[in-house]
Each structure stands twice: as structure tokens, then as C-alpha cells.
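Task card 7
Instruction: Convert sequence to C-alpha cells.
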Amino acid sequence: MSYHIKELYFTMQGEGARTGWEAVFCRFTGCNLWSGLEQDRATATCTFCDTDFVGTDGPGGGVYSSAGDLAAAARGVWDAAETTTACPYVVCTGGEPLLQMDEALVESFHARGFAVAVETNGTKSPPAGIDWICVSPKLGADLVLRRGQELKFVYPQNGGDPAALAGLAFENFSLQPMDGPQREQNTERAAEYCRENPRWKLSMQVHKYLGIP
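Output:
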């Protein structure tokens, strides 16, 4: 199986429960909730995505012909960063990475020493062996993946109530203010919700403030 990758780069996790972790980000092309084209945004299931996942033209992007090739490229990115972090860590994101990820890729990442994380909209079942599953539900999409290490809800989202998700089988619950022209107001609302509902922790997109990818 080949894998279509928008970009492959070293950075620091900028949001959620693992903010601050050094990682290789492996961004897959394609998503099942939006084409990625602006002319389709208004009619998409997810209208607020802030990520470019179209094509394979980003840093480290391309079509990788095998799981081993992609894992080797990710390990090369990690090694080139010369980090002192003991355990290599790869975050598979998108777009929607579970449209392409399979057990062969997870095993290949593990063989290269990586702990494997995925950031997904939760509409697809994951392959076995992923070490950290972060689900970011999108209202209007069927939520298939209902357990994992982190549930990260973008807030506010079409009037959706985070309380409807609080009973799912996740270890961490993160509330992330929606970016855009109302980011400051959304941040205040999210912070207030977290104060009133302490199971939820505020997730800020720190990488945007730091100017890192």
C-alpha cells in the first residue's frame, strides 16, 4: 500500500494533553469531512478546519510506496533534529489519517522506535497498536471511535454541548477554543466552561502563538 503525505516535519505538539512533546508530524492528505478546497467549505460537514491537507507538496511530502519507506523517512526527520528526547514520537494527523493508516504502518513506526499517536475525527476505526488516540469529534459526523487517550472538542461548535461527550471512554477531555475572528471570545467561553466543568481542561493552540509548525 502507498501513503499520500502532505508534509513530514519535526516540531513540538502545540495543543491538547501532550502540549510540549517533541514529535515528528506526519500529515496525511485527504479527509472525509471536507475536500480541502475553499469552494467546498460552506457545504462541508466540517466548515472550520484550519489545515492545508491537499496534495503532497509540503516539506517531506510525497507518495511513499511502502510502510517501511514512510517510517524510515520519519525516523530520518527525527534523527536530523538531534533532540535529546529519549523516545521518538510520531503524530499521524491530517486531513483524516485513518483513511490511510493500517497495521503495517503502525508496526513499521514501532520497528523504527516510535511511539505512535493519531489525531482523528473519530469517524473511522483505527488499526491495532496505536499508542495514543486523540479524537476531535465534528458535529454532524457519525462518531465511530468512542474510546482512547484524549477527546479534544473544538468549542463552540454549532451549539454542541460538550456534556454530551463526557460519558465516552477517554482518559483526558480537552476543550479547544475555535480559531478565527472570534478566537478571543471563544477562548473566554471555553475557559469559563472548563472552570465550571473541571473534568475538561483548556487546550490552547500554543504553536500558533510561538510561530512554529
